[in-house]
Fold this protein.
Amino acid sequence: MADFEIPELPTYLEIPAINEGVMQGDGPFKSVEEFQTPLGFPGKKIDNWQEVAISKMGELKSKYRSVQVFLDACVKCGACTDKCHYFLGSSDPKNMPVARQDLFRSVYRRHFTFAGKYFPKLVGAKELDDAMLDDWYNYFHQCSQCRRCSVFCPYGIDTAEISMAAREVLDTVGVGQKYCNQILGKAITIGNNLGLPEPALRDTLLDLEEEIEEETGIAVKYPLDVKGAEILLITPSADFFAEPHIDGLIGYGKVFHQDGVSWTMSSYASEGANFGMFIGSYDVMRSAALRIRKAALDLEVSRIMVGECGHAWRVAYSFWNTLSGVGAGATDEHAMKLQQQLDSRYPQPQHIIEYTYDLIQRGKLEFDKSANDDRTVTFHDSCNVARATNMGGIPNGQFILPREVIKAVCNNFVDMERSTIMESTFCCGGGGGLLTDDLMEIRIKGAMPRMQALKEVEKTNAVDTLVAICAICKSQFSKVLPKFDFDPYMIVSAHQLVSEAIIMDKPQKAVTAEIAETAETAEAK
Amino acid sequence: MLPKFFEFFENYMSVVSIFFTALFYLSLAIFLVGMTRKIYQYWQTPVPLKIPTAPTPLTQTGVVMRMAREVVLFESLFKSNKWTWLFGWLFHIGLLLVLIRHIRYFWPGDLPEVFLLIQPFKYAAFAMVIGLIGLITRRITVERVRYISAPSDYLMLLLLLIIGISGVVMSFTSNHTDIIMVKNFASGLLIFDWANLPTEVHFLVHIFLAFSLLALFPISKLLHIPGIFFSPTRNQVDDSRKKRHISSWALKQEQEGQVILNETLGKDK
Ligand code: SF4
Ligand code: SF4
């Protein structure tokens, strides 16, 4: 990790004066052949990379209307220039959303527009040379694809779309990012980002069951590969291990237990996260999504549910129906089979927050809210959930439902400053494939705006707990909180709060053994 | 036939008029062909994924309302930056009113009465000019905006400003042009009954730049006008769980089975 200064937290979030080149650099570690090949990308920078890159740009802009329209429509009004947390935290002008897009746009103009071909200087058109490619690699890996800029652009220009396109071009010429591509390799061959095979996963879950039983005396089960279960839970693999994630998983298990529903996870598709989105590859994203469809078909479940993970929920909510037909309307044979199999009374897929919220509404869960009385809680809207999905099918449900769940289990809740939450939420600084130690500098700088808003409620309301419903946010905060003088353990899952307050009065059920029977009785009633 | 044609020009039209008449048709042709091509390009480029940005509308009516708020009120820009919004909106609304008022020059014969309603908006030109001056000032003085500006960004504003100021000079100072002549020339362009135009410099500058602007549309950032309507983050309904959204190329790929789902059950039973 290079030497850099951790930004001081200002009382008010100020827009910095620009500081050219502060974040100039080589970017994150580059991917190597071993990780590139399984995804179908060249192992190293190819010889005729310029030619290939330009034709890939042409292909992408003809396949994605977003890319074509966004490249043309920007008027350089500057409205987005102060909206990116990476710019606010680093002051590098190339981290202003429009300037980031311009790295791509200037090449587009040079090669695909009249003005750029004949008057390059006039319109700022540039050649894709080595220096430009290096800038692409560096600065498109300083974008967490959080879409905050898109909220504020008069034309909705979404820099995330441009970042994704640029990363796909980079992969196509053999300049991939190690972190994302290595993880994707594991996800599409083994089934999860950690590369955790079935026996190891099974052991982990058994350990967890034992632990919970020891602690609470209640046999909360974590079923794996149970055919005929009602719900298939797809959750980020971080939930299986690390703090604070695992406390969320404990919470999900308790809620399922309390509801008495039969559920399972799949060892074949044990990952909610889908890094295919980060690298902008439709095909890779689709192959990861197809594993989940296959697991659902094989396990004959009637509901698919997604755990606390931001971009997983974006892919699930917004893209699954497109990619693999989880939902309604797909016409291929497997998707049609799935449509018949899934219970149309529930939204498919459903978020675990939607599920818990619904149970609370129907009075099926009881809580001892005082169990969380030692906390004053605030909620961090994770960018993918906040800006790219919905919950509950009601306008702005993605903001309302998690807050309602938290308020149902905890007495002290305050929101952070309005301009830093909901659709305007500041990214944690680690999303979009940036959650790697080789990007620590930008991660810390990018976290500054969120940390500033948090500091504010810490001062005024004595907030000591930060809730997030995203595995990336949770990991990122655990790392960066101490850099800004916060307790690293103040970040928790929403379902950890649920877990602490829930009253477990259900008689124990043998969930795994008589699963078929339970499923039948569930249907009968 | 041919000599007669030239005779017409010699007798009736000055060289300047011929030049501007030709320029008008050329610009108009570039505008029409260019814009049709761009709009067709946007139209037929698929949108493979659902990507509306929050706060998302859940229904088609919601999308129409959202788009209306964006186009009429510049809602997102308002959220973003009040100064840019103020100047940007002043400029656009001023320009719109001024354009509507210009219909009277192009309308052959007497103007239908509805257009009289717009007469009080004579001063809209000032809103336009003030807006433009604000935008230029911002572009020069705000460091971040300066950083992202190319020469064309300044030129575009300058072009509009000169058009605006020359227009104001004609309407509000003693430098009036012969309105009847202007009307004959302008409406003549539309009904192919060409006429001479006034030759005051500020008028010629005004229409030269205005015609050029028309030609610049399809090759410049003025494409933001069709662009906004095609922007997927703004024009999509947030209903992905209910309705399948799929692009032509993805469907084709799916049908050809490019990513094959293996039939075997793998490790799980
Ligand atoms: S807000 Fe939109 S139009 Fe304005 S500079 Fe940024 S990307 Fe361009
Ligand atoms: S998507 Fe987020 S990280 Fe990327 S440029 Fe926009 S605001 Fe910055």
